[in-house]
Specification:
- It comes from Xylanibacter brevis.
- The protein has about 475 residues and is α/β, with parallel strands linked by helices.
- The chain folds into 4 domains: about 5-95, DnaA, N-terminal domain (GMP Synthetase, Chain A, domain 3); about 125-295, Rossmann fold (3-Layer(aba) Sandwich), CATH 3.40.50.300; about 300-365, Helicase, Ruva Protein, domain 3 (Orthogonal Bundle); about 375-469, DnaA protein, C-terminal DNA-binding domain (Chromosomal Replication Initiator Protein Dnaa, Chain: A, Orthogonal Bundle).
- Helix content is about 50%, strand content about 10%.
- It has helices at about 5-20, 20-30, 50-60, 60-75, 145-160, 180-190, 205-215, 220-225, 245-260, 280-285, 300-315, 320-330, 335-350, 355-365, 375-385, 390-395, 400-415, 420-430, 435-450, 450-465; strands spanning about 35-40, 45-50, 80-85, 95, 170, 200, 230-235, 265-270, 290-295.
- The strands form 2 sheets. A 5-stranded parallel beta sheet has the order 6-7-8-5-9, sandwiched between helices. Strands 1-2-3-4 form a 4-stranded mixed beta sheet.
- Helix 15 packs antiparallel against helix 17 (about 400-415).
- The termini are far apart.
Length: about 475
């Protein structure tokens, strides 16, 4: 071998660059770093930033890699990946590979490796907490919509069982991050107090287990098992609506744990007062600790989530694409992640760069299109989200710069996208007259003629409600 292995790997990268798009090269191959080469075993080791990158390389680019390695290193060359990721983001450092790589995955006990109906009160040290280790606080990005619940959740994880936040009842719409947060509490608590019996269970699974216990005449054992838990986490309890016997059984479990100072964490899509079929004796207990609401993520939080995901998975998305996704696919965190995964798949299959054109194409297929007419409330909501102001700010008489811009843009978009006269728009935006609306529209038009950055802002906001047209 005439050339040094590191230089040969650089030759490989040059060949790869000639055979893929620039975006694909930057996303999947530029982050790869030469690690080592064992000439005796003819094994090349390279570092990659995440398991996700490994999976994509093995699924879509293994043939290309095989050809360039053969060209540069010769025949019978084995490629090994070393996944090196940032511990600061809650991840680990390990190795992984395909047929040619020794797989050394961490042995983590998760919900996938134990029967969900297995209950073993006799061996407490063997209790599987049924937690997802990836749903931790490091990956739960803080924003205005979740700051209070996240702060309380972290406090509970560090000091479980304190009466102030016991029980902790979290509610919010689907996709607002409830399951992630309650998992994160359990994961953090288990890290700090490994001896504690922590258990995550869905309401549906609890009901299935209870039904099995009734059939097998082991209800007392079932109740006893749950009464041994130190931190009980129950998800989606709204599914117990009208399940009288399940609720009565849970009451005995709850009452025992609460009296013994054990921590109880509950999650639902609605507050306790709106739970159907739940008796007052349980409702009062659900409400006696801390109730916290999770809202859907705002645009800035969506941007932070997307940037974190890209950094964690070794992805590179243009800033305008990140902004567009955050403004159009922000009904839930799951929707955001689905759009990212779809973008990567389209980019690979069609050998295209990730840009605004592809993002618009994917989002139209991934996000439910709302065909109702755009309203002034829709417009104000999007403008407020973009400038991080509130609707009362827009309606007020304040002359604070960001309030004025948001107010003028709301009027501008209302005139452009609705059929309302200027007088009606003025009434709906803080009770102003038609001359104020006309002045605001003229101000926006004039500024767009001379301020390129402002034009980009206006376009960004318009993109956020394109799907409503």
């Amino acid at each position: 071998m005439d050339k040094a292995p590191r230089l040969l790997w650089n030759d490989c990268l040059s060949l790869i660059r000639d055979n893929v798009s620039e975006q694909q090269y930057k996303t999947w191959f530029e982050p790869i770093v030469f690690d080592s080469y064992d000439e005796d075993n003819r094994t090349l080791v390279v570092q990659i930033p995440s398991r996700y990158v490994y999976e994509v390389l093995e699924q879509y680019y293994v043939e290309l890699l095989s050809k360039v390695l053969h060209r540069c290193f010769g025949t019978n060359i084995a490629l090994k990946y070393r996944v090196v990721v940032d511990k600061a983001h809650g991840l680990t450092v390990d190795e992984e590979g395909s047929e040619s790589v020794a797989i050394d995955k961490p042995k983590v006990s998760t919900r996938a490796n134990q029967s969900p109906t297995t209950l073993d009160a006799a061996t407490p040290q063997d209790l599987n907490p049924q937690l997802d280790p990836h749903k931790n606080f490091q990956r739960y990005i803080e924003g205005d919509s979740n700051k209070l619940p996240r702060t309380i959740g972290l406090s509970i994880a560090e000091h479980p069982g304190r009466t102030t936040f016991n029980p902790f009842f979290i509610y919010g719409p689907s996709g607002s991050g409830k399951t992630h947060l309650i998992n994160a509490i359990g994961v953090r608590c288990k890290e700090i107090y490994p001896q504690k019996r922590v258990l995550y269970v869905s309401a549906r699974l609890f009901q299935v287990q209870y039904t099995d216990a009734v059939r097998q005449n082991t209800v007392n054992d079932f109740i006893h098992f749950y009464q041994t838990i130190d931190v009980l986490i129950v998800d989606d309890i709204q599914e117990w609506a009208a399940a009288t016997k399940t609720l009565d059984t849970f009451f005995h479990v709850f009452d025992h744990l609460f009296r013994c100072g054990k921590q109880i964490i509950l999650a639902a899509d609605r507050p306790p007062v709106d739970l159907v079929g739940v008796k007052d004796r349980l409702l009062t207990r659900f409400s006696c600790g801390m109730i916290a609401e999770l809202h859907k993520p705002n645009v800035q939080l969506c941007i932070d989530i997307l940037n974190t995901k890209c950094r964690r998975d070794g992805l590179k998305f243009p800033a305008d694409v990140i902004q567009f996704i955050a403004e159009t696919a922000n009904s839930s965190v799951r929707e955001l992640e689905g759009v990212v995964n779809s973008l990567m798949a389209y980019s690979i299959v069609y050998n295209s760069d990730i840009d605004m054109r592809l993002a618009e194409r994917v989002i139209k297929r991934a996000v439910k299109v709302d065909n109702r007419p755009l309203t002034i409330d829709d417009i104000i909501e999007k403008v407020c989200a973009h400038y991080n102001v509130t609707q009362p700010n827009v309606m007020s008489r304040s002359r604070k710069r960001e309030f004025v811009i948001a107010r003028q843009l709301s009027m501008y978009f209302a005139q452009k996208y609705t059929k309302m006269p200027a007088s009606r728009i003025g009434q709906l935006v803080g009770g102003r007259d038609h001359s104020t609306v006309i002045h605001s529209c003229n101000t926006i038009d004039q500024r767009m003629k001379v301020d390129k950055a402002f034009v980009e802002e206006v376009t960004s906001i318009e993109n956020s409600f394109k799907l409503k047209q």
